[in-house]
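Work Package 3 committed the consortium to producing structural models of liganded targets before the mid-term review. Because experimental data for this complex are still outstanding, the team generated a predictive model from sequence and the ligand definition alone, so that downstream docking and mutagenesis planning could proceed in parallel. The input record is reproduced below exactly as it was submitted to the modelling pipeline, together with the SMILES string for NAP.
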Amino acid sequence: MLSGLPFYYKPLATDENEGPPSPCKLRIIAIKKLLFQLLTIVAIGYASYLGTSAFLNSGFMGHVHRPGCPHRNFTALPNNYSLPSGDKIPSVALGVWQAGKGEVGAAVTTALKAGYRHIDGAWIYRNEEEVGQALKASGVPRDQLWLTSKLWNTFHAPEDIEPALDDTLAKLNTEYLDLYLIHWPVAFKKDSDNVLDEELTANPYQTWKKLEEMVDKGKVRNIGISNFNIARVKNLTANPLKYKPAINQVELNFWNPQPELLQWAKENDLLLESYSPLGSNKQVSESLAVPEVKKISRMLGLTPAQVILSWHVQRGTVVLPKSVTPSRIVENFKLVGLPQPLFDMLEKAATSHPPKRVVNPSEYWKLGFDVFDEEWPF
Ligand SMILES: NC(=O)c1ccc[n+]([C@@H]2O[C@H](COP(=O)([O-])OP(=O)(O)OC[C@H]3O[C@@H](n4cnc5c(N)ncnc54)[C@H](OP(=O)(O)O)[C@@H]3O)[C@@H](O)[C@H]2O)c1
Ligand SMILES: *[C@@H]1O[C@H](CO)[C@@H](O)[C@H](O)[C@H]1NC(C)=O
Ligand SMILES: *[C@@H]1O[C@H](CO)[C@@H](O)[C@H](O)[C@H]1NC(C)=O
Ligand SMILES: *[C@@H]1O[C@H](CO)[C@@H](O)[C@H](O)[C@H]1NC(C)=O
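The resulting structure, written out as tokens with the ligand in place, is given here.
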């Protein structure tokens, strides 16, 4: 069993005077703000007005009852997704890239207390030992945790995979991973400083076959990929796979929402995980300042980060926000289904500007090609 804490706000009828502002108070504040918002919107123009009437016509405000607390009709978000193995993956994880030594352990501890049961890590983040120590100290039983790690680029050769996995397992202090991903569709020669192994890069099937063996050995429960575009997924899955990729972990955020990839993944029953969901540290402040995000945040009494992270899960992806700040870790776990017109408004805003990727190491690695080029094979 996973966390007892809800991923969404439940209508709250009691304890109005205890603790932080209750959902009820937040709703009242939100409604006041909504009225102000309406006046502003009418003044701003017809386009905004259309969006707002669609929102009002949706019945969003139709569920207010008295006396007591007006019950906002949020739709619940899925708190997990089923994978081909039958395992259920929690829909929100704590990401730990760039969570430094001396801070990542505390972040994991805070997250587990807040109800997270899913940690998204990687061998290359170089913090697996501290993550493992925090997991152990938490006392949360292993079977209630979802641990993801990733095979680094220098370990794609079949003979290097099991030792790399064993190193991760030892550091995390666990017998198995719930999910192991090929971190990038890029293989480097072992121990090299980013020297491309062209053969292993061009055809990841050998790497995949070894990962399938790791499943059969019980060292990992699910295997998947990361940073694979459609062409690369098709190339891998054209092989006679014993286990198809359970997950593709990719960059998804307001700036790079990848609607085609999302649509294709849904049609092909491949679950996506949204990395850098807030735009990563480079663009998080721009993400939180997006007018539509701010508008929805005011209307619903959510923080801008909660609006964006909720949108990701509502799109049908697993979301992996990273934070080492306790209040943000707690905040990022409280997600709600957005009323459909507001979801649509954000989806439209995200998909109506030219896409801009935050994470692309192709040049840094001097690959000589763009790892996200759909024209691959190069
Ligand atoms: N597979 C891959 O190649 C790959 C690549 C990138 C990322 N990832 C995964 O995805 C995870 C998340 O991606 P990311 O770290 O790039 O970016 P992100 O989660 O989009 O953004 C992290 C940044 O947002 C800040 N932040 C978090 N919550 C916030 C909130 N509620 N309000 C304001 N600021 C907030 C964090 O600050 P503080 O920490 O200071 O609070 C940090 O600077 C990674 O940790 C990793 O697990 C995977
Ligand atoms: C909330 O909305 C859903 C879907 O529109 C509807 O089925 C449900 O009855 C509503 N709940 C309340 C309390 O109005
Ligand atoms: C998965 O989610 C469903 C509803 O979405 C819930 O009934 C079930 O208890 C969840 N399972 C786990 C293991 O969290
Ligand atoms: C995947 O692409 C590589 C490189 O072009 C090619 O050698 C291989 O045969 C392809 N795999 C399949 C199954 O099509």
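Reviewers should note the following from the model. The chain has two domains: 16-56, 74-350. These observations will guide the Year 2 experiments.
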